[in-house]
Protein 1
Amino acid sequence: MRPDTRAIAGRRGPRSIASLLLSAALAACSDGGGAAPTGPPGPARVALTFLARVNGEPFACGRTYPGLGVGAVDWEPSDLRVYVSNVRLVREDGGEQPVELDQDGATQLEGIALLDFEDATARCSLVGTPETNVHVRGQVPAGNYDGVRFTVGVPFERNHGDASVAPPPLDSSAMFWTWNTGYRFLVLDGSIPSGAGYSVHVGSTRCQGDGRGNVSGCDQPNRAEFALDGFDPARDAVVLDVGVLLSESDLATNAAGTSAGCQGSPTDPDCEGPFALLGLPFGGIAAPPQRVFRVGAGLAEAPPATPAPTGTPGPTPTPGPGPAWTWNLPAGFPVPIVPADNPMSESKVELGRRLFHDVRLSRNGTQSCASCHRQELAFSDGATTSRGSTGELTPRNSPSLANAAYNPTLTWMNPLLETLEEQAMVPLFGETPVELGFGGREDELAARVAADPVYRAMFDAAFPGEAEPVSVGNLVKAIGAFERTLVSGNSPYDRWLAGDEEALSAAAKRGKDLFFSELLECRHCHGGLNFASALAHDGSPREKTPFENNGLYDVGGTGAYPAPNVGLYEFTGDLRDMGRMKPPTLRNIALTAPYMHDGSIATLEEVIDHYARGGRLVESGPNAGDGAASPYKSTFITGFPLSARAKSDLVEFLRSLTDAGFTTDPRFSDPFAAQAGGSAP
């Protein structure tokens, strides 16, 4: 690839890298008495600086950048991370010298480094981490260097593994697509004032594989090569200019039928500009010279000493098919979506059931997943907000897991958690709050499970053919597979639908008519098969989850919700999203009190009163305000007149959504219940 010649003009000739060497490295080139070196130059420490800019201004989370793209709109970032590999310095004679990267166990692995420019503040808190990294660290032979070359991308042999068990920095789910396509090499996310997002994601596409990590090749590798001349490692930085990357994109308009921005597809019109600017071919058009990376003034610093080696990571295991699985679903229920990398099997589901109920999945051995998701309560817990294994309270009410397999997203507020496997990681490893308490102790969890011979045999059966079947990645896959079977669909209302007129009382039938009436408009948030806001299943496009503000709070008359339960606003920063939560399923609703995201309404009768008023009035205290007057309340929460009898009928209908068989089904029950105390040994 041609260098950015604009960055070369006026630069001095090649300069020794000696200014970056530690004295210990220099001593290796001398006998200590002033004699000239007699052998080849020794190793020299180097720290290559990468800086992110937006049209020359420093990139920063929480900052709004004006006039970006072809429409010159304001834009605020929410993520910027880049994988670079095959980093080389250019010698005075034009030859290349690979940089031997430090194996630091965090941001560098083999020849791959993760550059992370976001700090998890403002909108970067969506998927970000507080840790940043702007350096590629390693060593080269001492000498004169005047250029740098590198690849934006993960090498093929590392690109298609299992991110859930990969070593750092390849363990980031935010940087991973799927088995076949592998990692996102470059992730740039942000939004404009309207709240609409615009992203540039670059990674390999059109890859051929079996969905379990076995990939034979990719038609569009999309690994961009960069060569910058006139680069002095002692003085300069490699500058990534986001403003340039977005300069040929319309951030306010997206091509019809495609995801927001450029999602890496060589057929997405929104990718034509970013691809060209990165020097990547698009739609059969040859790649022009890149314009995104340039040489700029750097940040001088002495590189640290070589860290202790962490060992060479072994190959990433890939899952086997496992025994066959047959769905046993209620009449009319579609097959749930099953991730390609986690096919269902009887052995895997049974393993997941055992793990789900095992208190050893909390670090102090006091709680299991089932502690907050009790079968007799339709896999909720009956508490206002749940309490973790260390006593720390969670900020939100524990939702029912009934029919969770049909939910496009899985929590009250987070629009990004879309699979049961991803969600299982939160209670296991989350630290704010602590729930099961294994944050940063993944190896300890795996070792605890592997020490049990029963589990070793069950993991072998569930993940046949794997060299190391007991892993955290496989553990969450088994839990996800079990939770996918928690399907509830045999309530009195379902039996009435099937033709049993006696299944519903006269009062419940009147309540049913009210529920589906235009007067109450309940169906806007609780419609369809699952009495929820959206439904996802196999063979159907995944619906987008609607998030709604039901007028529960209007703190101080500002529309605010009490922190930290501010709804979708936490992820978008758009005030119009204040208090917007995902409407839950109403199936088994009589068993899942108390209600609302914070458990602040105790009974079904009080829930109906809330909606009949059109919002809740909090008369005193720090959360005082009239939710009915909230400027951010969803438009169909308007209130309605309701007699005492009508309210009673409506409650009867809601009670008819209870599936008693679901709460006693032995397929979902605690396998340790027969043991003393009903707990794992």
Protein 2
Amino acid sequence: MKRFHLWAFGIATLLSAASAGTILNTKHNLSVTGPGTIKATTETEVCVFCHIPHNARPGKPLWNREMPQSAYIMYESEYLKRTNYPLPADLGITEGTPGSLSRQCLSCHDGTVAVGGVYIVRGSILGNTLIDMIGVNADGTMPTTAEGFIGTDLSIHHPVGIEYDPTNVKNFDVGSKTIELKTVPDAPLKLYTYNGKQYVECSSCHDPHIENMKFLRVTSGANHGENVKNTCISCHDKNQAPWPTTHEVAGMPYTDQGVKDRYNNGGDVSVATLYCVNCHTPHNGLGKPYLLRQVEQNSCYMGAASSRSTAPCHGTGTTWAGNDIESVLNRIYSHPTNRIDGVHTNFDTLYGYGATVTDPAASHSVKWADSKHAECMDCHNQHKLGSNNHIGTQTASATKWYPDTPSNAVSDVLRGVQGIEPTWPAIWTQPTTFQTLAESTKEYQICLKCHSYWALGPVLAPAAGEIATAATDNWIDSENVRATDQAMEFNPNNKSAHPVVMSLNNMPGSYAPRGLDTWGVTDVMWFPWNQNLGNQTMYCSDCHGADNEASGDPKGPHGSSFRYMLKGPNKYWPTKPDGTLFTTADIQADGTVPDLFCANCHNLNYPHKQWGWRMSRWTFACVECHVAVPHGSPVSRLIGYTNFPEPYNYNHNGVLQLRIKGYRKANPSTNINVSNVYAPSCGGGRCHRRNAQGYADGGAGYDPVTPLP
């Protein structure tokens, strides 16, 4: 009798503790008293579905089920493979092997073993007899529709049976990328040691006896959303400087009631609340791999919501001004984010055209040059981006475009992104060697990953008479305009270039005066480009961006309705909206030119209409003197010669436009006589018919190695 009282006291104590907040009130109570939809019809014992005090099967603690014999599709990713991270081939079946604890959990959750298929009940070996259950399939297994169903495809779930190795690193030429794991996970998460190494199992994050949503070990949060967030960051060290990121602090709320119910008992849920799980889900991610909620960019559009219209993210249905990036990406001229999906990582950047892939043999070894893509993560690091855009508090008028603080340093929205830095070769030569950067410091280093030899290979302008076809990747728009090597164009050793790489005064290849001279005119450029002339740098995205960034469109070169994604009040070059060429005759008295893109920044009353020498007496097309791709030139002031190839020599209605055969930059501070400035400079048949040496006719022509100044 005494023995019975002790036993009864122990059970009563357990039940009392359970009632206070343990397994009795969870879905793991599979007895007839359980609260879930899957439970026994008559069985009253609670623990028997997993444990038995005597004669236990292999597994711990005191396991009462058979190990499933399933062959699992294991989690893998190109990212992990490229870092040579140790990946499991399968889950262990033998007790004490990596993955065996997770296989025990899967004896219910993989859907291959009957939920009621236990070994012993009250001393009786059941054999093939099952505990009768409701909510299961006819064979007693968990239905695929059950919320707890995992299946045998573990590639869409957080990896288990996997080694925890925070020392893993991938080196770039400059910098490195760690696997971003904490040295030791924060309590109460657990790791399991096998053969001296630590591993992640299902029960690293979950305690099957805890009464909370999803059995998370972390219970300190105010709601389920905070518990999930704190579970993730217990291992994953994403809070690296600079911190915090936009996705960590953004207060935009979800209106999706399902998200509210799941993560905050029906209360308000914001981007900051969900943190990691805006984009990721530990189970059943549709975006393989990386546990993305949706396929690649769709995760950015929808977040955790069931529709774009209920998510405060970047999809078409968002009500948050400036957030709808999806619509912009669907415009006719855009980066192809919505059109290309495939196996890729940000380690692709390591391998440009001609590079040797040194990744482990198990990886796909995708090379940037062979797998061109423009995913969101190619330009943004969602774990490090900030909220401030480099354009800042821009202002605009009907005719002028004013970006703030001219600079080429990466902005907050671009920080932490891989890039490349060319080794700058001789003048007007395609750079073919580069340094890979774990984190870009200049915006152009991100852009040149695609817009240079690194992705394009040795493909420049088409040869004379070549017919454009869509058989090559090297086209930038629907009109089959071939992409050019912008690293070659912005090369500081050229005679001229927009100051994307460095300021004009620092360009080693340019002759003095390197920067634009005022020539006695106060506003050579419009504000702020008239400040500290020659010492500024600029972004690629000062010129390229969305249709209307001043009011509504998300800032940045995502997409546009205008060719080349030109932005600002004036969006056309080198032809007007009616298809005719812009000419000097279009320059207005105030220095503006309606629709002409260049007039957003340049006061065209200088030098074209100064000192009584009025070019408007004649009509010269801009592209008769200047290259049609105005990034840079082997000739000063973006001048181009008659024998330049397309597209630098603009082909308008079948006629190449460049007229100049030689050009010498004059210094207006010492020589402002118009005849001396121009007469010896222009040698085209339409102009002065003199070459750069001042001799009539002839012309020195175009020499790509030693061009005229």
Protein 3
Amino acid sequence: MKKITLAVCAALVCTSAFSCGNTDRGSGTGHMFDVPLLGNPESLDPQFASDPSSATVIKNLYSGLMMTDSSGAVKCCNAESYSISEDGTIYTFKLRQDNFWYYDTNSNDVIEDEECFNVTAEDYVFALQRVLDPKMKSPYAEDFSCVKGASDIAEGTLSPEAAEVYAVDKYTLMIVLEQPCAEFLRIMCTAGAYPCNKEFFLSTKGRYGLDDRSVMSNGSFYVRQWFYDPYGVNNILFMRRNGKNWTDDMPIAPSYLSFYIDRTEEEIRADFKDESIECFTSMSSSPYNPKKYLIQGSQATTLGLIFNPKDKYYSNLKLRMALAKSIDRDGLEPQLKSDVSCARGVIPPAVSVLGRSYRELSSDKQFDEYNKEEALELYAQAKKELGTESIETVKILVNAETVDSGYLHTLAQRWQELFGSYIGIEDVTAEQFEERIAAGDYSIALYPVKGEIGTGFSFLRQFEKTDPLRTAETDALGLTERAMACPDPAELVETYTAAERELLAQYTFIPLFYKNTYLIADRDNEQILFDPFTGAIDYRQALNYS
């Protein structure tokens, strides 16, 4: 087990005894979960933070009007109900009156009534004003660009207070959109839409979310202690159940969350091996046996080939088309392990639409272009346009920490058999991969596409904001704007499918694999939920039967 500092030890002696004494082993409730964070949270400000460690703590510290359940369906959380105007531009939320702010001012594990006060519509108004404020540089600002006035606020011609977000009364919030947005309720599930109390925010004097004295909870847990020494090893963030927000329809199962703050995944895996922690997330499930461990995988990343636009050969459209049409994914699929599956589209299966996987509603097999004869013809045309008899050998740059490059060797072999030219593989570390991509030091790379939130437009947006993916051709498509302007949830599938088709027709990104992100836990645990897009782990309903 890990050693901990004297101050943290004193707190845990008290709280562990309380937890053990109140754990209901039969129901799995009342447990204290020992779990890791990969690095110290950058901030616990939900309108600003975006790293996975911050996202996990924020997920358990705050709650919003809407939430997604384990199936990906959107449902009410702190909203008692909502209504949408006939033209789809005005959303009115009725707030529950049993959601409370709590700020820990004592150390006796007792939540006093005078320390709690209701979350109101004004708290959501202030939160969204902060998100839209360009000075804030919120990573969620683009998601809420559909709010009326957002574009003028971003350009500096309107103040954030002019956004059309209103507290109609203490428990009624109204949000006016520029135009209908079928994904708006899902956007309201994100951390950017969590409430922020203006009075408390101002009282922190610029420290909001940066330490355990500058955060206030309206969610399932509150922060009791946050200790981090960048030169030390005994770093911890300790949370206790916020019993004030325990309701019959939203019970909080664990009593405590004890987060160890580690620097690397290797440290986390070592802690898991010696049973210091109970679960963690990873891009790889190896070497954990699913008979011994609870392993949940979610395909939230799409890996595809990108091409250096300055490359002597692969800047040629017909050469890229030849490569795309030469890939026999049906033949490749049986050789893949469970961590990946063949991808033909851009948006991965983890994205939900209407409570179902998008890929169930829109099969990516409609994008399959495998045609050996056409590939050979295009290859011959490319050589003619390039004025060469042969294409020089290049290597595909691969982040070895993302995927097993062995899957690509089969493709490389088939390309050599078909075209007579060799495409090799170059495995590098994550750091080297980022450096090489940024420097343009590659011909072809296997690049991961991941959305910040679980919407199709979040994936399409990567082709408009991420330099290796962004090109003049993809910029001109305006895919994100069109997707966000889709007025009807029933039309989303058709909208996303059309956008994928246009994007793939550029041949600047050739999808190869959908990659799993995993939650790995001891089998004593149940109902630990995780968001494969943000990396946040939700312990509110988590049960333990050890």
Protein 4
Amino acid sequence: MFSSRERSLLLLAGLAALLMTLPVLLTSWGRPLRHLEWRLQDFIHARAAPLPAREEIVVLGIDDASLELRSAFDEDVNASRPLQLIKQGWPWSREVYAEAVRKLVEAGASVVMIDLMFTGPSNDHPEGDEALRKVIADHPGKVVLGANFTTIEGSNTSGLGASMLQKPWSGIVADTTPITNNIGFINYWPDDDQVVRWTRYHRSMQYEDANRPDLTHLDQMPSAAAATLALAGKTDAIPANDHLHWPRFSSPDAYRPLSLHEIFVPEMWTSNFHNGATFKDKIVFIGPAAAHMHDSHVTPVGEILGVQVHAQATGAALSRQLLHLLPWWTSVLLVFIASALAWTMVAFWRKPIETLLALIGGTLAAIVGCWWLFDQWNVVVDAVAPLAAFNLAGLLGLAYDFRLERKQRQQLRGYLQRYFSPDVVDLMLRDPEHFRTLQRGANRVITVLFSDLRGFTSMSETLTPEELVKQLNHYFNRMVQIIHGHSGGIDKFIGDAIMAVWGWVGSDTSEASIRQTAIHAVTTTLKMRDGLRDLNAEWQAEGKPALKIGIGIHQGPAIVGDLGSETQSGFTVIGDSVNTASRLEGTTKEYAVDNIISDTVCGQVRDRFVCRSADLVRVKGKTIPVPVFTVLHEIEHGPTPGLDTYEQAMSLYRAGSFTQALEGFRSAASEGLDDELTTVFIKRCEALAATPPDTWDGVFTMTKK
């Protein structure tokens, strides 16, 4: 299609165009690309090898079991003041947390972090404030309480909007500056899609000098994880800066909370916690875990509790498993490389299917590579933009080739459709050798449909030529759409008649395919009936006359070929089957129905459609009689009232029992089959019963087309 030089120019032009538009695309679609990037990174994060949970971290949850004291008997409650306070209802007295801290520290816990906010004095249990203050004072460097940044104005995913720090009440922990490690902020700032991926281990804060109000100092406010690690003597594991860090999460099942109240139940303290040995040298997080507290966050590995997020951040820092993002310029470089690779592949390979598979394979390989870097080296690659550029460049190149080829094919199709029906054109373009064989002549079993308008001649006398042509074209357009929509081809138009054919060009000549052509033809007949009904409704609303239609269908052998002179020819079918279909169309007038099918067609479609016997006829120009039928509707629409009685009467009629047949036809009419076809046979039976024929073979001979 292109010379080597032309394809090189195409490569350079496409690559240049992509690179020039890339900044615009990244500016306009930056947010959607970022969301896709997060989705891909979360997909990898959730399926990579999970970070093992740290054994030195334990979580105690204020869960539904604790709120309801499910594991405590009455004697346990009566013997334990913390359980008695819990039983009084939520919110608990702060003495409960004081007792929990005391019990855990005495059991050897390294640090206890309480993931709750105590921003003011208690109203219902003031004695609990003093108990909590005292236990913190008695165990210095063992307790961390939660603080919270509340946004004042503006916010962003990095948590740097103007905000105010809510500290624990000074009656519990002294408000000092610089801030001590007794408190840590418990905020997590989700991304735009409300997924928590990042954490800050510190946040810079300014505070005024108590002695010099004109001076301010910069302080590093630790997070709950950082404060806990500092008190546990793990300062080397804490990132020193206030940047965003992406911890590698463990499984969502890691750090599942144990029920807090169970530490106050003696039997469980002994059996479940081994007299406190479970907590020796452990970092213990206490936080909400009950469903109604709604303290959960969506993370890359799933939805987990807020207290688990603190444990995950602490565990990732202890394991030195913080993820590393590549510099921004690596994505730009990868975009250039990916674009150049895709365009080179399209420009010089020139194999569309293989190229498309290579694009898919390259995309999957890149994702696997990102997965490997994440799994082995904790490296996070921004891969969506390079992959988008890779596929965009490749698809643009393929689309250009396809568009050019498609344009050429459309030009050829437009030319051919001036002379051939769409199915013939499809065959010519898809399998030209097979079509050339058919052009030379071939025997095929075909299904032929003839349709003709009733009363068209008289109608034409009442309309102007312009109105007549407009209405007739409107009718033709609808009918041709229906025929083409059910795999039929238009052989020709004969005045107001249409000749449609099935099975004349396809290469499948099996019995199943031949049967399917009959089904298509009968389905088309019913759809043409519905289509004409809709057209008549439109025309009558406009004051135009309604039209009626007659359709004949037959299936049989015919000759297919390109017939005509050297100056004018056409691809068509000829043979006795065509003539029979034409004659059957004419019989619809005799029986006052809109369709007649031959027994051959009926045998092919009887299991799909309700077929009603019309007669045993000898059409004009034929000597052998043909059983003919009319199609009522699809079987799935249910039985037709009176049809069984009608068929029994038809058998009597053909046997020459005219009186019994007459009674049967009248019964069918009374049962609901009171139409013109039934009336035809009632009148025939009346005449034949009054004047019986000398000989009777049940055949009706047509004397006109």
